[in-house]
Protein: OB-fold domain-containing protein
Organism: Sphingomonas oligophenolica
Amino acid sequence: MTDAAEIPGFPAPDDSPLWKPFWDATGEGQLVFMRCTRCGNAFLPAREECPNCLSPGPQWERASGGARLISWVVYHRAPDAAFQGRVPYTAAIVELDEGPRMITNIVGAQDPEALQIEQRLSLRIEQEDGVAVPRFVPA
Ligand SMILES: [Zn+2]
């Protein structure tokens, strides 16, 4: 038996100034990504410079919330004690309609084993330990 007090909490998000607009947006029920003001490249995760042309100062832009499933794995054993209570759960790479790819969870799928590559997804912001976490559901 593991004492409950020994179980670490949900990992806290990166609250650095670079990421603050991202978490502020999810707190308002929205998802944002970065777009380069020089070459137009849309990307995540947040960076100080465009990963395509290295120009500084990319701007945040609101995502529509539509995406498609690129890859995923269904966890049946928790990799960390903080996740023990949620198995089985699905971790995935999704591609936003605007182009950026992000790592997230697929929730609300009646049968996670029935997910399909390229499947349409919709954004769902879920509250967890006071954090608004962007996840996706089958569209
Ligand atoms: Zn660029």
